[in-house]
Amino acid sequence: MSSDLEEPHVPQEGRGDEEPLLGRAGDASQQEGRGIQFNPVIGTAILAQAGIWILAATVWASIFIHPLMLFSAHPLLNSAGLLVTTQAILILQPTHTPKQKQQGTSIHAVLNGVSVLTLIAGLIIIEYNKISHGGEHFESPHAILGLITYIFFIIQALVGIAQYYIPTVFGSVDNAKAIYKYHRMSGYVLLVLAFATTAAATQTDYNKNVLHIQLWAVLVAEVIALVGVLPRIKKQKLGL
Question: Is 67 helix (H, G, I), strand (E, B) or coil?
């Protein structure tokens, strides 16, 4: 018998087979028997939480120190939607067993559903405000990026729901599973796109003349958030 046979793989608790992009296997994995409520703070998620909450607080504080108006709901809703979708990512990332993935996906879907509805409400508010004041539509970089972001959020949510809950839309369960990795990749791209849209908002006339949210402050918060989110990506889940 050959002496170089592979030893049987013995999975380690909470480590699974998946290594994050940075760190060791298990650094961003949900331990067996540990509640899913801890997933948003595992590993580098603390940085992600710090970044996204700083970003949201920056926007909210700038809004609430000024007289509230209909337009105020637009940045409040959009920043809240971005906060919620970040939580949806963080809670699902560490799952690795079938039971964890099922529970994590259900929560992920609910949170992203709330996020998309919140973002759509933000879109409706700004469009109503533009129409009522005779303003121009989708002219600034922020407005154009925002429209693209809204569209992709809706597509991302619909594809995610379809591939998990009604996979026959794609012909078979196997076909639906085959696009999981693309759904994950596009989710991270969409997060970066949403951050870019938020940064572009600091260059609008309303922000420059009224809110005075600094571009550097937004970028720092977003970089901190991404430094927390991206290292937790598991290479195998992206097919790498």
Answer: coil
